[in-house]
Specification:
The protein contains 5 helices and 3 strands. The chain is α+β, with helices and mostly antiparallel strands. A hairpin with a 2-residue loop joins β1 and β2. α1 packs across α2. The radius of gyration is 15 Å and the shape is elongated.
Length: 98
């Protein structure tokens, strides 16, 4: 199998996920994959994308300190998501200690 065949399979699986669960799961997976680019390496080491429900992104953080830090930059994170993925509409971010 060539590399192109694997890429095609990945695209096929992602499109099937969209059909089964709507875009939420596919978008969640995409944000999980690109989280370090979206928020930066330092923040990504202390937080992770949990899931998307509607237009709300749920993010897990490792402590209340990181929850406070991320709450101050929610708007910047939403702007960064739009920069990388204009098709993903996030209007709010909820933070959870995870």
């Amino acid at each position: 199998m060539s590399k192109n065949e694997f890429s095609s399979l990945a695209d096929l699986l992602q499109s099937q996920l969209k059909k089964i669960s709507g875009n939420g799961l596919a978008y969640t997976m995409e944000l999980q994959k690109q989280w370090p680019q979206i928020v930066g390496q330092a923040i990504s080491q202390h937080s992770s994308v949990l899931y998307i429900k509607g237009t709300t992104l749920y993010v897990g953080v490792e402590s209340s300190t990181w929850m406070s830090e991320l709450s101050l930059i929610k708007n910047q994170i939403m702007f960064s998501i739009q920069k990388y993925h204009a098709e993903i509409k996030i209007n709010d971010i909820k933070l959870k200690i995870a």
